[in-house]
Design brief:
The chain contains 16 helices and 18 strands. It has helices at residues 8-15, 29-38, 52-57, 96-104, 192-203, 212-227, 240-253, 271-279, 295-302, 308-330, 342-345, 360-363, 384-393, 398-401, 421-440, 493-506, and strands at 18-23, 42-47, 62-65, 91-94, 108-124, 139-151, 157-161, 169-172, 177-180, 232-235, 257-263, 288-293, 335-337, 374-376, 449-463, 466-479, 487-488, 510-515. The strands form 3 sheets. A 9-stranded mixed β-sheet has the order 2-1-3-4-9-8-7-5-6, sandwiched between helices. A 5-stranded parallel β-sheet has the order 12-11-10-13-14, with helices on both faces. Residues 1-14 and 348-364 have low confidence and may be disordered. The structure holds xanthosine-5'-monophosphate (XMP). Xanthosine-5'-monophosphate binds next to loops.
Length: 528
């Protein structure tokens, strides 16, 4: 994906075996790419609107056609030049992809008499089918379709079926064309990873030598070439993405890189110092590090503000203003770093228009008026877990690499109502205790995201002989796969009890601790 015309992606592709996922707009397309990469084979997603010549030029070892929302026999259904299937490159069609292949080659796709949705028992019709090497018979697969292949195209053999679907899998081995009605990429397909590995390794002949180390090295070499003796500016938040991006740049160009870290006073306890310890002058990396202690500025702006959206807006705008002021002091730079990752780049959209490159300036919300010539995005080909892997390869401390998600507006969205320096201190202390105890109980590895928040409620309590009138801290812990939905985690009673005791004893101005049992929906993970 050489959007900048700089040859970067081509360089990576030439060095690695490549599988292309041709996106017809299905909802699991990023998952397909991930599963292929889990076979140590590099994989990229392209819209079905990508030119055939471009696909050919990239010289892929195999092509996977995704699912999609249309019916192949509808007038405006997503389609592709048939020549794709005549290149001699192995093709695997998944769901819509298999139906499209059938339709364009003269088979028949029709509305299924019985719509299949959910797990289905798939019977393999002949043991030698290359896709099903080493797969149990029957095997459980995930189905989600209203159309089905009623008649395979000439030359195809049916290799698997279910009770309701006569063609659950098909193949035309001479032409290296394969199709499955089910979704091997989702975890509900129990042996899906093996089925995809069979395609990628046995059918496409990939050796699976793609390693994160090679990716990181190629990325560093490329940055060096791209930047030359230019100056680079990076907004470092201490989060995983910006940290990994900064380290890659530091390894590539050393002190041509300046990282600006804005401490907005809404970070977790000691976090600003931790970021400085890693990236600052006594830290591990060769770069210029500027820490801006803008706490007071943010607290001033937030004084008296209660409405959540307003608070978020103020924090976002102030952040940009502070960053901009620093950028002005530094003067013109050649490049601005953005920690854009692959899910930001590829948006699986209805209609298969998935390869939407977001406007650079929108991705990180950085201002247009910082004086730079080009954006540099060293992580734009990586998924989140791959960014973490890259971080480990680069020797970034695990604590940073496996950091929980932390919102840009920070504790600002974990303090209900007005933000004050005093409230920030309370929530920082309570949160530090909570995290310490969760670590000690080993819960930090099993719970998706957890933190302490400060409610806007004060109530009466008693301490010693005195009555108190203090705040209630809310503990939150959720399990989530995608952060779109979440459930409250079951934290052992002893852990909650201990955290509660410690918070009311150790944190001034807190006399009550509550556990938030709300899921998302109807709650959100953060409190504002
Ligand atoms: P909510 O509260 O919307 O959070 O259920 C979902 C996930 O997103 C994180 N989050 C943010 N991350 N900037 C971010 O970078 C934000 O403004 C923001 N708000 C919420 C939140 O921590 C959770 O992981």
């Amino acid at each position: 994906m050489d959007t900048k015309g700089d040859g970067f992606e081509e360089e990576i592709i030439l060095k690695h075996e490549l599988i292309i996922v041709l996106d017809f707009g299905g909802q699991y397309n990023q998952l397909i790419a991930r599963r292929v990469r889990e076979c140590n084979v590099y994989c990229e997603i392209y819209s079905y609107k990508t030119d055939l010549e471009k696909i050919q030029r990239m010289n892929p070892k195999g092509i996977i056609l995704t699912g999609g929302p249309s019916s192949v026999y509808e007038e405006n259904a997503a389609t592709y030049p048939k020549e794709l299937l005549e290149l001699g490159i192995p093709v695997l069609g998944i769901c819509y992809g298999a139906q499209w292949m059938t339709h364009i080659l003269g088979g028949r796709v029709a509305k299924a008499p019985i719509r299949e949705y959910g797990k289905a028992e798939v019977s393999i019709d002949f043991a030698h089918a290359a896709l099903f090497k080493g797969i149990s018979n029957p095997t459980i697969c995930w189905m989600s379709h209203f159309d089905y292949i009623a008649q395979v195209a000439a030359g195809f053999t049916v290799s698997a079926h279910t009770a309701d679907c006569p063609v659950a899998a098909m193949e035309h081995t001479n032409q290296k064309l394969y199709g499955v009605q089910f979704h091997p990429e989702v975890l509900h397909t129990l042996e899906g990873q093996k089925i995809l590995a069979n395609f990628v390794k046995h059918i496409c002949g990939c050796t699976g030598d793609w390693q994160m180390r090679a990716f990181v090295e190629a990325g560093i070499a490329k940055i060096r070439e791209q930047v030359g003796d230019g100056k680079v500016l990076c907004a470092l938040s201490g989060g995983v993405d910006s940290s990994v991006a900064a380290v890659m740049l530091s390894k590539a160009i050393g002190r041509q890189l300046t990282c600006v870290f804005v401490d907005h006073g809404l970070l977790r306890k000691d976090e600003g110092d931790q970021v400085e310890a890693v990236f600052g002058p006594t830290g591990h990396y060769d770069l210029n590090f500027i820490r801006v202690n803008a706490q007071a500025r943010f607290y001033d702006k937030l004084a008296g503000i209660i409405e959540p959206e307003k608070k978020r807006k103020i924090i976002g705008e102030e952040f940009i203003r502070v960053f901009e002021e620093e950028a002005k002091k530094i003067g013109a730079v050649d490049f601005l770093v953005q920690g854009t990752i692959y899910p930001d780049v590829v948006e699986s959209g209805v209609g298969g228009e998935s390869t939407v490159i977001k406007s650079h300036h929108n991705v990180g919300g950085l201002p247009d008026y910082v004086d730079f010539k080009e954006i540099i995005e060293p992580l734009r080909d990586l998924f989140k877990d791959e960014v973490r892997q890259a971080g480990l390869e680069l020797g970034i401390p695990e604590r940073l690499v496996f950091r929980q998600p932390f919102p840009g507006p920070g504790l600002g969205v974990r303090i209900v109502g007005e933000v004050t320096a005093e409230k920030v201190k309370i929530v920082q202390e309570a949160d530090a205790i909570y995290r310490e105890e969760m670590d000690a109980a080993g819960m930090n590895k099993t719970v998706g995201q957890y933190f302490a928040a400060l409610t806007n409620m004060r109530s009466v309590g008693v301490m010693g002989d005195e009555r108190t009138y203090d705040y209630a801290v809310a503990l939150r812990a959720v399990n989530t796969v995608d952060f779109m939905t979440a459930e409250a985690s079951e934290i052992p009673w002893q852990v909650l009890h201990k955290v509660t005791l410690r918070i009311v004893n150790e944190v001034e101005h807190v006399n009550r601790v509550l556990y938030d049992l709300t899921g998302k929906p109807p709650g959100t993970i953060e409190l504002e």
